[in-house]
Amino acid sequence: MGKTKGLPFEDVHNRCNFLYQAAKESLKRHKTDLSLCRFYINTMTVIARRQGIRLHPDIKRTICKRCCLLLLPGISAICRVKKKHQKLVIFTCLGCGTMKRFIYNKDKLPTIDDPSAWLDFIIDGEQVRQPQTPQEGKRGDKKANKDVKDMKS
Ligand SMILES: [Zn+2]
């Protein structure tokens, strides 16, 4: 009897991951029929709640709390940036009109848009996307600056 390695509740995480991706695909394919997307998202949140796992903030932020719709800008949501006391990103759900507000942070991209969060994808022997860590860029810049300094002195 050995302990199984890996994430606790790994099967639950896998299932939630699948349901989220299925919701996204169903929304992209049937832009007017939102019922399937709502069903997937509702199932995902119910499973997560019952099993006591926490959804990632980036996932949570793309779900409408009121009508369980996946908020994809351009399809099921309107995304606007407004400035009051500070810059805000406002998502408006096109299913029910609920608004979600987040503080705009230019340094923090959503995980999906962050290139450093991506792994290599090799499709048919061709590398589709390379991981680009921001640290490498910074290091390169420093080195370049150093070279400039060396040239000056
Ligand atoms: Zn909604």
Secondary-structure blueprint of this entry?
Layout: H1 10-29, H2 35-51, H3 57-60, E1 77-83, E2 87-93, E3 99-103, E4 121-123, E5 126-129, H4 134-152
Helix pairs in contact: 1-2
- Straight-line N-to-C gap: 67 Å
% residues in beta strands: 15-25%
* Integer-rounded radius of gyration: 21 Å
In DSSP terms (H or I, runs of 4 or more residues), the helix count works out at: 4
Order of helices and strands: HHHEEEEEH
Residues in helices, as a percent range:
25-40%
- The overall average pLDDT, rounded, is 78
Bound molecules: zinc ion
Tell me the overall shape.
globular
Spatial strand sequence of the major β-sheet? 1-2-3
Tell me the number of strands. Answer: 5
Spans of at least 5 consecutive residues with low confidence: 131-149
Main beta sheet strand tally, sense and closure? 3 strands, antiparallel
Structural class: alpha+beta
Give a verbal description of the structure:
Helices cover 39% and strands 17% of the residues. It has 153 residues and is an alpha+beta fold. It has a domain at 114-153. The longest helix is centred in the first third of the chain and has 20 residues, at 10-29. The protein is globular and about 50 Å long. The termini are far apart.
